[in-house]
Design goal:
By secondary structure, the chain is of the alpha+beta class. It has 18 helices and 21 strands. Helix 7 runs parallel beside helix 8, helix 12 crosses helix 15 and helix 15 runs antiparallel to helix 16.
Length: about 525
């Protein structure tokens, strides 16, 4: 073999790179011309009239779907709506509502919002919006959004029917920015243990979480239960900020990397708000993306115990790109990796349909009920960074302690009542009739939590309403799940009479994952054994 000088080799490498780059550019240009030519042919020769904008959007959507399950196209009129949960707010009048018996009913007013400021109260029925009737017109939720949401500073006029008031009440409300909160609940589970439930990772999450954590620390907590169940994720920075409260010394939180995206490391700062106390994270099959970043970092650093069921398995990073007409794509540009180096993205090589059916398959395979039904690939085996415990990549975060779904067949009856929307309207009607009586008997939440009870007669009323909706009364199931039904109804009443976090405070009194967390936090040896076992 002839020797090749370094200069000649360098020239060959540069030439090869140039040819490859030029080839890719020519290929890109060829495909762009091809698509433009196709649109031109359709527009000029197709037998019927066409909508080029719709055809283009369909083509883009299909193209994105072929890439991976999380790269998506967002039409122009959907961009603002899609961003609202991440931005932490929208513009409107500030109420939660329900369409009850064909009437727009105010369920709660958002504290500090425009509706609360003018005196709108839960139980009010909005009969007219800007002179247009809302009852007797088969109102849908989408209709309410169109009528009540709007640009900050704009005016909306309401006519309201209030119980025990003969005449309709007139309200003029000026729309404003309405916050969407990330922290659903924050309170003490016991004297030593705080609890924070986070529903998403948005622009306001860091501020909300930091405030909640500091308030709990003022009450001298030594333990924290972080509830990320059902949290589908959101902004990566909000997740890394949260982890920064729990680990220190510039430790790795997460890193991202893709073929065309250089590796980027996210590390903890030198100090955090809760680096020493015992920590437990609750997850389930609905915990995804940013939730898995938080959970993965805590698990990899042996910082806390994870309780629940295997998380969703989303380890892809999306970056938004605006298009020329105001539409947007969210394109996957990198994978993210936990500190131990594992990517927890579940496979999608068999197509999006199978990917989207994954949770159904978990149910059918028994994984949600039995820990032994979970299968991990041995080649994706990793170790935690301090105590060398075995963890896996390639399909979500597996908790340290498994808590199954309830397998009782009796819950089918309960779920049918919820699916047919029997339970919630019943509670609305009950509160509408008894609001003042309940408030007088239980002026504060501690008294309500301790003494307020749902009667057997109320359960029978729910069952009767279910029969009217075609749900056959199941006496055996009612007997088996009566306590759970009562708990759900009590929680819904608490949310209406007090505030959102009281719903969780009631529900958590009989929550298996929280019971397990408190059991471990009480037993120091058991807690430490889980974190140190190989």
């Amino acid at each position: 073999m002839r020797n090749i000088s370094f200069s000649k080799l360098l020239c060959l490498i540069i030439l090869s790179f140039f040819i490859n780059t030029q080839s890719k550019a020519q290929s890109f240009e060829t495909q762009a011309i091809k698509f433009g030519r196709l649109l031109n042919i359709i527009e000029s020769t197709y037998v019927d009239s066409t909508n080029l904008e719709k055809l283009t959007e369909t083509a883009i959507s299909e193209m994105m779907a072929k890439l991976d399950p999380h790269s998506v196209y967002i039409p122009r009129d959907e961009v603002k709506k899609m961003n609202e949960p991440l931005q932490g707010g929208f513009e409107g009048i500030g109420i939660s509502f329900n369409i009850f018996q064909d009437t727009l009913l105010v369920v709660t007013t958002i504290p500090g919002g425009p509706s609360e400021k003018v005196g709108l109260i839960p139980g009010d029925r909005i009969l007219f919006v800007d002179g247009k009737p809302t009852c007797g017109v088969k109102l849908q939720n989408s209709d309410v959004f169109k009528m009540l949401r709007g640009t900050k500073g704009t005016r909306v006029d309401l006519k309201v029917k209030r119980k025990n008031t003969k005449e309709l009440l007139d309200f003029t409300i000026i729309r404003d920015v309405i916050p969407i909160y990330s922290v659903d609940a924050s309170y003490l589970l016991n004297k030593e243990t705080g609890y924070i439930k986070v529903n998403r990772f948005a622009e306001t999450t860091t501020e909300e979480f930091d405030k909640a954590l500091k308030e709990l620390k003022k009450q001298n907590i030594t333990n924290l239960v972080l509830d990320l169940r059902g949290n589908g994720g959101g902004l990566l920075n909000a997740a890394t900020d949260m982890v920064d409260n729990f680990i220190s010394d510039k430790k790795m939180i997460v890193y991202t990397q893709g073929i065309k995206s250089p590796r980027k490391d996210y590390r903890a700062s030198s100090s955090g708000e809760f680096e020493q106390g015992k920590l437990i994270v609750l997850i389930d099959e609905g915990s995804a993306s940013a939730s898995e970043i938080v959970t993965g970092a805590i698990q990899d650093w042996d910082r806390g115990i994870v309780i629940g069921r295997r998380s969703f398995g989303k380890g892809l990073v999306q970056q938004p790109f605006l298009l020329n007409d105001g539409s947007m794509i969210r394109l996957t540009t990198a994978h993210y990796y936990t500190p131990s180096g594992r990517c927890i993205q579940k496979p999608y090589k068999n197509g999006i349909n199978e990917y989207q059916e994954d949770l159904k398959k978990r149910y059918e395979d028994g994984e949600l009920f039995h820990k032994d039904s979970v299968r991990f690939v041995d080649t994706l085996r990793y170790q935690t960074l301090i105590n060398k415990r075995v963890v896996y990549g390639g399909g979500g975060i597996m908790p340290d302690i498994f808590v199954p779904l309830d397998t009782s067949s009796h819950y089918q009856y309960f779920n049918a009542l919820i699916r047919k929307n029997v339970l919630f309207p019943y509670v609305i009607n009950y509160i509408d009739k008894n609001r003042e009586t309940i408030k007088q008997a239980y002026p504060d939440f501690p008294g309500f939590l301790k003494k307020f009870e749902i009667s057997d007669a109320m359960i029978e009323e729910v069952a009767s309403l279910g029969e009217k909706e075609g749900i056959k009364k199941d006496t055996e199931s009612i007997k088996a799940i009566s306590d759970d039904m009562k708990l759900q109804i009590k929680a819904l009443v608490a949310r209406d009479l007090f505030d959102q976090d009281k719903f969780y405070e009631v529900m958590n009194t009989k929550d298996k994952s929280i019971d397990k967390a408190l059991e471990l936090l009480k037993d120091k040896r058991a807690y430490e054994k889980i974190l140190t076992k190989p």
